[in-house]
Amino acid sequence: MKILTSALPRSTRLLPSGCWFTLLVLGCVAGLEVAGRHAANDAHDGFAAFALLAVGAAVAVRHRREPLAWVQRLAGWARRLGATAAAFRYDHGFDLRGTPPFPRRTPPLVWTVLAAMGLWAALAGLAWAVFPTGWRVVGTYGSYVAYLVGLLLLWAALLACTFVGVFVPVTVIDRWLKGWVGETDRRGAELAAVVGYAVLVSAVAWVIPPTAVLGVCAAVALGAAVAYVRPGGDSAAILWRAGTGSPVFALPLHRVIALVVGLAAVVMFNVLLTACGGRLTGASDEAMPVTALLGAMAAWLVPGLVLVGLYWLVTALRTDPARRTRPTVAVTGGDRADQRAAAGRLRLWSCRARHGSRDGATVGVELVQPERSEATEFDPRWPLKVSLSDLAGDVVRERLVRRDEIQLRRQFFRGLGKLFRRASAFKGPGGGGFWFAPHWWFIECLGREDSDGAEEAAPPLVGPPYSRVLPVRCRQHLHAVLRATRVDMFFVEDGVDHRKLEKVIRVLLELYDVHGGRRAAEELHFRGLPKVRVMIHDYEPGNPFRSDVYPEPKFDDLSRVRVLHVFRDRGGHEELIEPPFDFSFTPAPVGLVG
């Protein structure tokens, strides 16, 4: 026995360290290949897939404790593959200026991905045409382990689609409930909504084949293609380039959204076609019942996602600051016939007419007799007293337009104070500032940027959303003013409160009124404002902001934005200078006369 035990360690040293474990892994894989030949359906494949995952977890734990040579070689191949894939990475940034325009072009990688999606759909359709009972026969007569890897990826994609399909509609329902019941406890209603929606989708998926859902995916992809080819207006764009020194191209933001939606629809179409092609053709799904059930569940969650997407699209179009909404004029006084005549005249002026008292956001007129009219008064009282004959000229129209602008600006300054008062709680101890741009629909609220070295960094987006504090028409008017004066964003340093920022914006409004929106804002227009220093910089590729006195906000090198910086006035270099001491009132000792 002693001879045997002494010889055993020397025999194990004949193999390298970790070889026994590698042989065990190979044995498990070979066992899965053999067992897979006797599996009846994908329910059995699921148990085999979990076993394969257990083997992978064991390899990861063993490699972490004692590195395995073959795992290191695989990791090296993966790193080299990742380095090769990095060649398809693009530098990107935002273009909020738009002039002069960059050449428009879509990255070639997008067309490569679309071609790959088309090949995937063709292979999935061919597989179901050749094997009507299920394409798991490929694993039976080929590599069963490779089939398990593909099955796991497909199930993961279906589960992700199911999670997103339940989470997104429930989030919208929760937002509606918050608007209806306020801040009260609504967990019971949320649970009922989740369970009810899941039960409804499950019942539909069990009875109705998902053929119509694939048609919905195809329709969404077609709609995205139509939106892609539409010409864009005064909108932002994404700048991209293949690498340093390469030419810069622009891709309008509406095309970016169309590409994302279209690719998502194509991917969903391919996943559903791969998972439940048997139910689409009416063939039996006895070979892959689990995959077909998961596919049907994910498929019938798609209509809910499409409805939510349409709801968001309509909401975004209604609240887009780039569009122009007609003002509303409240008409009071006079009889019904006079009010109808006044409403017809107001509609010719591109105004909405409303009968009844006005609110704080509505311009009002009161119909009176001609002798009581105040249409030409220098400082009239509002609602403006006018007669029907006054509405025949343009004097009242100009006054209504100006009054509407004044009220919109008052609303804006009230909302500006609320925004910065609530956002002041997010200021970090190391200093920094806020990015302020309420005239872009894709910027939801204030952006926070802390200075380098700040220990407690604030979140990048802070404060209430613009849509909750600023009315839609208020943001639309601000969009017209800022686009005319060529200001794309504000950077407001800590220490500059909303009152000082209000004075800066009033200068922009005055510049817009005086020059009719035909002159861009320059730094000289803001000279004389107390306690602030306004600096305007055109961020563009190769032209970052540099200052030895004022903080430098971080910005993408490839972005092109004209930013109006509002800093605390440092008085040159902000050096502390001791005031001179006046010796004229200092008592001096008087000599004693002996």
pLDDT < 50 runs, ≥5 residues: 1-14, 573-577
- For the termini, the CA-CA separation is 124 Å
Helix content: 40-55%
What structural class do the secondary elements suggest?
Answer: alpha/beta
Biggest β-sheet strands, sense, barrel: 6 strands, mixed
Q: What is the beta-strand fraction?
A: 5-15%
- What does the average pLDDT come to? 83
Verbal overview:
By secondary structure, this protein is α/β, with parallel strands linked by helices. It folds into 4 domains: 18-87, no CATH class; 90-318, no CATH class; 328-393; 409-568, no CATH class. 52% of the residues lie in helices and 11% in strands. The chain contains 18 helices and 13 strands. The chain has helices at 2-12, 19-36, 42-65, 69-85, 108-130, 137-141, 144-181, 187-207, 211-229, 253-275, 277-281, 289-299, 302-318, 336-348, 395-423, 466-469, 472-484, 498-515, and strands spanning 91-95, 237-241, 249-252, 328-332, 352-355, 363-367, 384-386, 432-436, 446-450, 461-462, 489-493, 532-539, 561-568. Strands 10-9-8-11-13-12 form a 6-stranded mixed beta sheet, with helices on one face. A 4-stranded parallel beta sheet has the order 5-4-6-7. The chain has a 3-stranded antiparallel beta sheet with strand order 1-2-3. Helix 14 (336-348) links the parallel strand 4 (328-332) and strand 5 (352-355). Helix 2 (19-36) packs antiparallel against helix 3, helix 3 (42-65) crosses helix 7 (144-181) and helix 7 crosses helix 8. The radius of gyration is 34 Å and the shape is globular. It starts with a helix and ends in a 26-residue tail after the last strand. Residues 1-14 and 573-577 have low confidence and may be disordered.
